Amino acid sequence: MFERLSVMLMKEFLELRRDRWAMFRLIVPMIIQMLVFGYAATFTVHHVTTAVLDLDQSQASRSLISHFAATSRFNIVNVATNQKEINRDIDRDKAVIAIVIHAGFSRDLENGKSAQLQVIVDGTNSNTALIALGYIAQIVANFSAEQAANRVFPSRSSPATPAVGISLQMRPWFNEGLDERWFFIPGVIGTLTLMQVVSLTAFAIVREREVGTLEQILVSPIRPVEFILGKTVPFFLIGLGDIALVSFVGIFWFHVPFIGDPWVMLVGSALFLLAVVGMGLLMSTFSRTQQQAFALNFFFLNPFFILSGFAFPIAAMPKVLQWFTMINPLRYFLVIIRAVFLKGVGFAVLWPELGALALLAVIMLTISVLRFRKSLD
Amino acid sequence: MSSDSPAVWADGLTKRFASFTAVDHLNLRIEKGEVVGFIGPNGAGKSTTIRMLCGLLRPSEGRASVAGFDVGRQPEEVREHIGYMSQKFSLYGDLTVHENLRFFAGIYRVPHRDLSERMRFAISMAGLEGREDALVRTLAGGWKQRLALGCAILHRPPILFLDEPTSGVEPEARRRFWDLIHELAAGGVAILVSTHYMEEAEYCNRIALINGGRLVAMGTPSELRQRSLGGDLFEIDCVPLGAALKALGTAQGVVEAAIFGDKLHAVLGEGGLSAEELPRFLAEREIRVGSVRPAKPSLEDVFVRLVSTTPETRAAS
Questions:
Q1: Distance from CA of B304 to the nearest CA of A (A)
Q2: Which of A9, A133, B267, B315 is deepest in the core (most CB within 10 A)?
Q3: Which residues from B are below 8 Å from A13, CB to CB?
Q4: What are the pLDDT tens digits along chain A (377 aa)?
C-alpha cells in the first residue's frame, strides 16, 4: 500500500512542479478574491444620493436638513423647488431618497403637534432602501429628541413634566464595532477554499479519465483506496495551505482578530477539507469529461454558497432549504471558523459542527470509493 | 497457472449495455507464446472483449479465465498477471521517460533489486537510450507507443492485451512494434492484439475475426483464406479468357472462376481438377496457357467473405 501511494504522490508532485502556472493558479486567484471580497462585501450604506424639497423654509426645517447633510450616509445631490423635480430625480436614478418637508412643519412643532415628514425611497434595491430608511429613522429620532429638549428646558414652561425615556446602551459582544468585515472575511476563507478544492479534485480525476491514464492505472493491481488517496492527499494539503494563506491575509491585511485556538482551527479545517475533497471526488465519479465536471461544478457550487449562511441567515430560509443546508459542509465550517476567529470558543462548544463535518466526510468518501469501483463498468 | 492450461480462455463471454449486446457468446483460447490478432471493424466488440479480459468490465454472461484466474471473480489476481496497452498511449505527458517507468514500476511493485535492470530493458526496447529525461509529451508517436509497451511489461506479465496499439503510428514504427511483439511472444508471452489494419493480421499466429460482437472465424491466416474460399486460389494467364472461363465453369472441382483484369482467377477445391492438371485441361480446349500461379487473396477479401457467409451477422455492428 505504502509503495503505491508514495509513487502516486510523487507523480502528483512532479506534475504539479512541471506545471509552470500551477503555483500561480493556486495562490493568486485566492488572494485576489480575498481582497475583492474583503473590500467589496459590505452591507453598509454610504453616500446615498438624496434630493431635498423644503416647502416650509423655516429654521426647524433647515435644521433637519442640516442633520442629513452632516452625515456621510447621505449625499444631498439636489435641493429641489417643486414636487415634479423630486419625481424626476427618483425616476432618473439621480436620487435614491427624497425628503420632502411640507409647509406647516415648524408650525406643528411649535404647537406641540406631531409634525409630518415625507420620505420617498426608490425600493428597487430593497436592501439599500431598508438600511437607508433605518438611518433616516435614527436621524429623525435624534432631531425630535433635540426639539423636545429645546422645548422643555430653555423655556422651562412645564418643569413638572421632564421627558421620560429609556436610553439604550448597545454593546455587541465579539465584534464591538459591528465591523462587517469581521463577519465576512472568515466566511470568505471557507467559501474560497470550498470552490478551489472541490473543482481541483474533480478536475484532476476527470482529466486522468479523459487522457486515458486512469484506465491504464485501473488495469494495474492498484486498489481504489490507494488511487483515491494518491489523488486526494495533494488537494487536502493544498486546501490546508489555501486556508492558512487567506487567513493570514484576513488577519494581517484586514486586521480581523483571531482570538481562538489554532488547533481548533486546524482540526476544523482538516475535517472540512475531507468533506470537500469527498465532494470533488463524488463529482468526478459522475463525470466522463471535464465539460461534464464543469457543468456539475457550476450546478452545485452556487447553491452550496448561498445555502451556507455566508450572507443569508439559514434560519430565515424555507424549511426545505434549511434541510438541504444540513449536507452542506460549508455551513458547519462557517460556524466553526467565525467562532474560532471572533469568539475564541473551542471543542467544548463546536463539537456538534465538528462532528457533522466528520460524518459528512465519512459519508462522501465512502460513497465515492464505492462509486469509483462501480464506475469501471 | 499450470503448464498445460491456456493463457486465456473464454467460454460464452457476453457483455450487454442496456439493450445493446456488444459481445455475444464469444469463445476464445490463447496459448502461451501465441500472438492472436483480434480483427474486426470499429464497434465489433474488440475493445469490450479486451476490457472484460482485463477485469475492467464485468461480463454479463459467460466465463473467462486469464492466467488461470476467473476474470469475474478474481479481477485483482488477473491484473497482477497482465500487461495492457491501449490506442491512447496512456502515459503522463508532463513526466519524463524515466519518471513514467518509475511510476508504473511502483504501481506494479516491481522488486527493488530488479528495478534498474527492468527499466533499462524497457528504455532500450523503446529505443530511448539517452532520452531518459525527455518529457513524454515531446516524443513522437512511435516512441510513445514503444514506451507504453515498455511500461506495460515492466512487471513481466505472462499475458499482454494490446488494444489497437498501432493506430495512428507511421508504418515504419508499426513494423518495429510488431518485431517487439514477436520477441515477447518468443519469450513465452501470450499476446492478444486488436487491430483494424488488415496487413497486420498477417503477422499473427492466429486470427480471431469478430463482427457484431460474434466470433466469425478463428484460425491461422492461411486456414482462414482456405475456409473463406472453399479451396486454393490460382491466377491463370491464358487466352481467350471468355472460353477459358466457360470451360472452367463446368469443370469438376472448380469452386469459382472469374476474370480478374487480363487474367483468370480460379478457386480449386478438393477432389477435382488440380493445379498441375490445369494447363493440359485448358490446352485440350484450345486455350493457350501462359502460366498458372497460386495467388493469395487479401485478408480484407477473406474477412468480407467470411462475414457475408456467416448467417447471423447483424446490422448492429
A1: 32
A2: B267
A3: none
A4: 688 999 999 999 999 888 888 888 888 988 998 999 888 877 778 888 999 999 999 988 999 999 888 888 899 998 988 899 999 999 998 999 999 999 888 888 888 788 888 999 988 888 888 888 888 988 888 888 888 777 665 544 444 455 556 767 777 787 776 677 888 888 889 999 999 999 989 998 898 888 888 888 888 888 888 888 899 999 999 999 999 999 999 999 988 889 889 999 999 999 999 999 999 999 998 888 889 999 998 898 889 998 998 888 888 899 999 999 999 999 999 999 999 998 888 898 899 999 999 999 999 999 988 887 755 55
CATH code at A48-152: 3.40.1710.10
- For residue A8, list chain B residues with Cβ-Cβ distance below 8 A: 107
- Among B90, B95, B106, the residue with its CB nearest the CB of A216 is B90
**CATH code that applies to domain B8-218:** 3.40.50.300
Whether residue B94 lies within 8 A of chain A, CB to CB, comes out as yes
The length of chain A is 377
Contacts of B292 (CB under 8 A, 6+ apart): B234, B235, B236, B237, B275, B278, B279
Q: What single-letter DSSP state applies at residue B94?
A: T
User: Residue B252: helix, strand or coil by DSSP?
Assistant: coil
* Residue from A208, A220, A225, A227 whose CB has the most chain B CBs within 10 Å, to mutate: A220
From chain B, the residues in CB contact with A7 under 8 A are 102-103, 105-107
Does B109 touch chain A if contact means CB atoms closer than 8 Å? Answer: yes
C-alpha torsion angle, residues A267, A269, A272, A278 (rounded to 10): -100
Would you call A219 and B106 a contact, using CB atoms and an 8 Å cutoff?
no
- The residues with which B28 forms a beta bridge, in sequence order, are B10
Q: Tell me which chain A residue has its CA closest to the CA of residue B52.
A: A377
CB-based contact (8 Å) between B170 and chain A?
A: no
The conformation of residue B91, written as its DSSP 8-state character, comes to -
Interface residue of B85, B87, B103, B145 to substitute, partner A, most A CBs within 10 Å: B103
Record: contact A377-B55, CB cut-off 8 A: no
